[in-house]
Amino acid sequence: MSRLTFRRKVDVCWQKQLRDQHLSLGTPDVPHLDVGRSVVRRVSYRLAKQIILQYEWLGTMAATGHHFGIFFGDFCAGVTCIAAGGGTGSVNGHKLFRIRRNEFGTLARGACVHWSPVGTNSRLVAWTCRLLRRSTSLKLLIAYADTDAGEIGTIYQACNWVYIGKGSATRQWVSPEGRVHDQKLPYNLKLQKGGTRAGWCKALRAKGWREQESNPKYRYVYVIDKRDKSLLRLVETMRRPYPKRQLAGVVLDGSTLADQASSGGSIPTRPLRR
């Protein structure tokens, strides 16, 4: 049985496609496009969701608790969404790094808009890590690049994250419309609406949902707490050579925030505020 994705599988990263599609919309009336003068700050779940649902590859919002946006004046040019602990399905992910669950975070979603200047994505990721270090107990952040979206993790490579190889396949739930949700969907429904996990599994299948194996993704990690020397040493032992983009025998650079933590898509020309 073939795997489904909400978007069509691509050779060129999805975010690059979106950027190209929306170039005709032009640039809103932002006061400047100087990345050095941009500001990264916390934003609401609502603002982050607005951008992610429209322009991120999966087309869904994750269960995230920390959200950051990069601003040029009042205009938001991109967001990152962080889940602490096992919030996005990595319930035991912290054990691999010998840290506590509340010290483990996932960069679960991210997107930059079509008019964001070069360097926006890397500044957003770098400042996300800085702000997490200042305001949370997180010691390590993990992120994934999905080859179904044409991603290899270029932005994480540019930000000096450590590549630790591909992860294992997990189970996913696919809606009748083709939207993909992670394996925790029945459990989340149980928490939100009551009942049992088994009951929700049965109900989903009856409504035409089905299960599939996920696509093993490239994994990148960044140690937020540089004071933890044992963690730094452990991560270094996991380092693998960065994957490269190849198409027709040619190595390409890509332009990807999970390849641009989702750099594409348009935002209306009115300001997006917290």
Please summarize what this structure is.
The chain has helices at residues 14-21, 45-55, 120-135, 154-158, 185-193, 197-206, 229-238; strands spanning 39-42, 66-72, 75-84, 104-112, 140-145, 162-166, 171-174, 180-182, 210-213, 218-223, 245-247, 250-252. The chain is α+β, with helices and mostly antiparallel strands and 274 residues long.
Task: Describe this protein's structure.
The protein is built from 7 helices and 12 strands. It is an alpha+beta fold and 274 residues long. It folds into 2 domains: 14-169 and 216-252, Gcn5-related N-acetyltransferase (GNAT) (Aminopeptidase); 170-214, no CATH class. Strands 1-2-3-4-5-10-6 form a 7-stranded mixed sheet, with helices on both faces. A 3-stranded antiparallel sheet has the order 8-7-9, with no helix packed on it. It has a two-stranded antiparallel ribbon with strand order 11-12. The radius of gyration is 18 Å and the shape is globular.
